[in-house]
Write a structure and sequence with these properties.
- It is globular and about 145 Å long.
- The termini are far apart.
- Strand 49 and strand 50 form a beta hairpin.
- The chain is α+β, with helices and mostly antiparallel strands.
- It has 15 helices and 54 strands.
- Strands 14, 15, 16, 17, 18, 19 and 20 form a seven-stranded mixed beta sheet that branches. Strands 29, 30, 31, 32, 33, 34 and 35 form a seven-stranded mixed beta sheet that branches.
Length: about 1050
């Protein structure tokens, strides 16, 4: 019962309800906008309209307003009286909505009228006014009368209320491509339909029609409704291809993916598609059913591109339908997969070179351009090879950027971006000094594949867009001569049959070729065509032309230092250091685009090579364009051994380090032109400093220190104004001022960096077999993990103190064959991808490995270092080897073949018998030798004019010395190559000092007092210095014997009997 003088709770609630009813319910409206769905937010409370004040008005708050007013979705939430200042009280303040409330006042707020706010803080809202858009009455979902959904009813939009920009936004929103046209629809007449009251004024870049500005247009009549015609597609993709850039063309139309059935599909249209998909250029349109049939819809239509530089949105598909597609009419394409390069101001295959950086096209400088890089670009554009890089007639004024990139290609790359790229320190040039190229053209019908260059390898011809084999049972040098002439590769050096393991299968283009040697094309010879034969039945043929000769530097830390090697007659070989001097080294450096020579090295400074020694007694003037153009002995004629292999250090050899701190902190120095020098800090950003740290393997975060934190430098100041972007993984790719030894105004401008990351530490167990990245053999730097045994699993390689994996891009059985051979695990059973044996951890060191299958080591195969993020551990490569040792396989350079796993304590009966008989034989021979010695001693006593005992002693000494040297050589070769057996040169014993270490000649340039071993990547430098001072290159994986080890090892000392050692036994 209620206390006297007080109202009970039920009575109080009834009283409040009666007051609420008498005062009326709360209301919401939008005022002073273009219509009922935009304007200043006003609330009616206690029979009085007031405003809403909120300094943090969000789209979630606005969404509740639009939903409450049935105005579709919120487009914009606006502050500071965008629709003018209101009047009356401030009813709501600091409203905080989740977005799902039914009314604005149900959101959290401070209370009704709790705070009086100046009206210039009144908030506003723009709602879409409709909740959907569609095109009706057309042939497809991408054409028809325009309607918008207002509340629960579809309203018609008048033709006078939209324009072409509005139509473009509508087509984009509906995933129907681009607007093709807007048409007057049917005449309304006496039709009674809901008409949309606002005019749309789109800019054209809006993602939804609701985001376009609108004006209220009060009318209840409409002469014609609006009809919108879209191009009919929302996107393209390639399906069922072997790569992401090949396959069957599928079209997104009206929100549904389907196969494009195009009776007029051709290469120009395919070319536009490849470019739009960032896949380079169209190589061919494959035939047959190799790409399978689509499981979804089929869109019939014609894909028409009217100009070469069109985008896909400019190439509408017309007459779409759902009919079945006849065989062979579905659109398909194989793209090159290489984007970012083109030729302009010329023909399809000649012109000015332009490359794309971060969406911007620019030209290259002719001074940084070379024929080898040009050939890669021609191949990338499906234009054959580069015939010339001189084409001045087509140069024109250019207002765009001039990129200073220099590309250093080996010749086997598929894309220009696979080549080593150096930009740092390169000078700029004018538009009239731009790089150009004339390619051989797209109509090449002959090629050599699988070799070290375009001028050696398997002979293949193109028939109907498909590359086919050439088979012959009587292939000779005359046939090869025609091939070399047609490819403009010089003269034929060798005609050969491919080994059985490298023979192909499938379509045969030519068979039984008979040439006289004077024909200009292979097809002009007597031939038989079109035969398909099983693998290995007939002989696939190959050619080596003189144009295949190449030069490279091996075992240095990067491309401009190392042991000189030449590719000739299909084999890589070395150069002897007899008479090797700075003039010879200059030719090498110039030929490789590495500047000039700093030092000419002798005595296998970069380690011994293997195999052939191609040149000896080289005597260059320095003006020759190729090393083999210098006077020398004939190819392969020499009196040298591999401990005399020549090497060079060129001026463009680059290295990076942080000094006076630790591996990841210090004063920044760069090695150039033979000298360490500082880097200036002008315009140095955190991003550039982070690129330095990333380059050195110290993370990607950095702090730029000041006030000589890591001391003052004393050498030159090489660079200034270095600018890197997020795309750069190496400092060498960044833009900067040209090289200048006085780049800084004073030492206060030197760069001091502290990296926030640290080089990854490796557990001591990891070093058990491979103690550091310098002294491991090739065999020790390779392993397989996660398989059933040590001959199957995920492939891992050792580099910079840690194990890392290989990306499975282009990974195939030829790569797996090399891995299995190097591990001593027989032949490859399969090459596996997509982390078949589990995902690895740590870095991914390599991608795009391209082995031929004949290499002795994985480090002999072309590959690309992975600095970016194009791969992750889901793509780790793996192998499955047979596990059986092949007796015909050559051992790796560093290790003997692996023995099959057996119990070492068990011997078969034949083995025991052989041991016993061998022991008895040795005893008999020893007794016999003793008897011969005694007989000769007696003869010496009786014949003073002849001393046979002395001769026997000398013979015994000679025999024992040779045995001792052979034993020592075997014991010291724990990480070196099993010595090759060479015939002893005729004058070897006449010139006992020929193999002694030669001092550098008078032409060697000074290294300005620097530590040579530290600078040039001498095999003896420490891991810490090398890892912190230099970036990665594939040649860093090479095994190199340290200088100290060479000098202390008895097997490598010059004892005067070195020539006997090479005889072997």
């Amino acid at each position: 019962m209620a206390t006297k003088g007080h109202l009970s709770a039920p009575v109080l609630w009834l009283l409040l309800l009666s007051i609420q009813v008498s005062l009326g319910a709360d209301e919401l409206r939008l005022s002073n906008g273009t219509g009922p769905c935009s304007g200043r937010v006003e609330v009616k409370h206690e029979e009085q309209w007031g405003t809403v004040c909120d300094g943090d008005w969000t789209i979630e708050d606005a969404e509740v307003v639009c939903k409450q007013l049935q105005c579709g979705s919120a487009v914009k939430a606006l502050n500071r009286a965008p629709f003018g200042e209101g009047t009356g009280p401030t009813w709501l303040y600091r409203v905080d909505c989740r977005g799902d409330e039914s009314a604005l006042w149900n959101c959290t707020h401070t209370g009704w009228g709790a705070f009086t706010c100046p009206h210039y803080f009144d908030i506003g809202v723009i709602c879409s006014g409709f909740s959907g858009v569609r095109l009706t009455g057309g042939d497809t979902a991408c054409s028809g009368n325009l309607k918008v959904k207002q509340e629960e009813t579809w309203a018609t939009v008048c033709f006078s209320h939209i324009d072409f920009k509005t139509a473009s936004v509508i087509c984009n929103e509906l995933e129907c491509g681009q607007a093709v046209d807007i048409l007057r629809g049917t005449h309304f007449g006496d039709r009674h339909e809901l008409i949309w009251q606002e005019e749309f004024h789109c800019v054209g870049n809006e993602t939804h029609l609701a985001h376009c500005p609108r004006n209220l247009h009060h009318t209840n009549t409409c002469s014609h409704d609006a009809t919108v015609v879209c191009s009919g597609y929302g996107g393209y993709r390639l399906a069922n291809g072997s790569t992401t850039c090949s396959g069957r063309v599928e079209l997104l139309h009206g929100g549904t993916w389907g196969t494009l059935c195009d009776y007029l599909w051709d290469l120009p249209a395919a070319n536009i598609l490849c470019q739009q998909l960032d896949c380079g250029v169209a190589l061919l349109i494959p035939s047959g059913q190799s790409l399978g049939k689509g499981n979804g819809s089929v869109w019939n239509g014609t894909f028409s591109c009217k100009k070469n530089d069109s985008l896909l949105r400019d190439c509408p598909v017309t007459a779409l339908g759902h009919d079945k597609c006849p065989a062979g009419k579905d659109a398909r394409v194989v793209c090159s997969g290489c984007a970012g390069g083109r030729l302009v101001n010329g023909t399809t295959c000649s012109g000015i070179v332009e490359i794309c950086h971060e969406g911007t096209w620019g030209r290259l400088c002719h001074s940084h351009w070379n024929l080898q890089a040009a050939s890669i670009l021609c191949r990338q554009l499906n234009c054959g090879y580069a015939k010339s890089i001189q084409m001045e007639d087509h140069l024109a004024d250019w207002n765009g950027p001039i990129w200073r990139d220099a590309f250093h290609c080996e010749g086997t790359e598929s894309c220009l971006w696979d080549c080593a790229q150096v930009t740092l320190g390169n000078p700029t040039c004018s538009a009239k000094e731009a790089a150009t190229v004339i390619c051989s053209g797209p109509a090449e019908s002959l090629r050599l594949s699988g070799g070290e260059s375009r001028c050696d390898g398997r002979v293949e011809i193109s028939l109907h867009g498909l590359w086919s084999r050439v088979l012959d049972d009587d292939w000779d040098i005359k046939d090869a001569q025609v091939v070399c002439r047609q490819l403009q590769c010089g003269t034929a050096e060798k005609a050969y049959y491919l080994p059985k393991s490298e023979r192909g299968m499938g379509l045969v283009g030519l068979r039984s070729v008979q040439c006289t040697g004077n024909e200009t094309q292979l097809m002009l010879c007597k031939t038989y065509q079109y035969q398909t034969v099983p693998t290995g039945v007939s002989e696939d043929v190959g050619v080596i032309c003189s144009g295949s000769r190449q030069i490279r530097l091996v075992n240095g830390t990067k491309r401009c230092a190392g042991r000189v090697e030449l590719y000739h007659d299909g084999i890589w070989g070395t150069v002897c250091d007899d008479n090797w001097d700075l003039s010879d080294a200059n030719v090498v450096c110039k030929q490789l685009g590495c500047g000039h020579a700093i030092k000419a090295f002798v005595s296998a400074y970069y380690g011994k090579g293997s195999g052939q020694i191609w040149l000896d007694d080289v005597n260059c003037t320095g003006a020759e364009s190729d090393l083999w153009a210098c006077p020398s002995r004939a190819w392969g004629q020499h009196n040298c051994q591999h401990k005399e292999d020549a090497g060079v250090l060129c001026s463009d050899f680059l290295a990076l380090r942080l000094v006076n701190g630790n591996d990841c902190a210090g004063r920044l120095e760069v090695f150039y032109n033979g000298t360490w020098g500082s880097v200036c800090s002008n315009r140095m950003t955190q991003l550039t400093a982070g690129t330095v740290c990333k380059h050195l393997g110290c993370g990607d975060g950095a702090e730029i220190a000041e006030d000589f934190k890591y001391g003052r430098g004393s050498g030159p100041t090489w660079l200034d104004h270095i600018e890197c972007t997020e795309q750069h993984s190496s400092l060498w790719q960044c833009q900067s001022d040209p090289w200048d030894p006085q780049s800084c105004d004073n030492r206060a401008e030197e760069t001091h960096i502290s990296c926030t990351g640290r080089k990854e530490a490796t557990s001591p167990a990891t070093f058990t077999k491979c103690p550091n990245s310098t002294r491991c053999s090739d065999r020790e730097k390779l392993r397989v993990i996660g398989g059933e045994d040590e001959c199957s699993g995920r492939v891992e390689i050792w580099h910079q103190g840690s194990w890392g994996t290989i990306c499975d891009d282009t990974w195939d059985v030829a790569d797996a064959t090399v891995v299995c051979r190097q591990l001593g695990c027989g032949s490859a059973v399969s090459a596996l991808s997509e982390a078949a044996f589990g995902e690895g951890t740590g870095p991914i060191w390599l991608e795009k490995v391209h082995c031929k299958g004949t290499e002795l080591s994985l480090w002999d195969c072309p590959a690309k270092s992975l600095f970016g993020k194009s791969c992750d551990h889901k793509e780790d490569a793996a192998v499955n080897c047979s596990g059986t040792i092949e007796t015909t396989a050559l051992p790796t350079r560093a290790d003997p073949p692996r023995r099959p796993a057996t119990d070492s304590t068990r011997f078969s009966m034949p083995v025991i018998l052989c041991i016993i008989l061998g022991t008895l034989l040795c005893l008999v021979l020893a007794i016999l030798a003793r008897q011969i010695q005694r007989a000769r001693a007696q003869q010496r006593d009786s014949r003073l004019s002849y001393d046979p005992f002395s001769e026997a002693v000398y013979e015994e000494i000679d025999y024992n010395l040779m045995r001792e040297k052979q034993v020592v050589t075997f014991l010291s070769a724990n990480t070196r190559t099993v010595p090759e057996i060479f015939p002893l040169p005729e004058n070897a014993l006449e010139n006992e000092y020929d193999d002694a270490t030669e001092a550098p000649g008078p032409k060697d340039a000074s290294l300005y007092g620097q530590n040579e071993q530290e600078i040039i990547g001498n095999p003896g430098e420490s891991d810490r210095n090398k890892d912190s001072q230099t970036d990665w290159s594939p040649s860093m994986f090479r095994n190199r014997t340290p200088e100290a080890e060479r000098s202390s090892s008895p097997a490598l000392e010059d004892t005067g009997y070195d020539d006997i050692e090479e005889l072997g036994c």
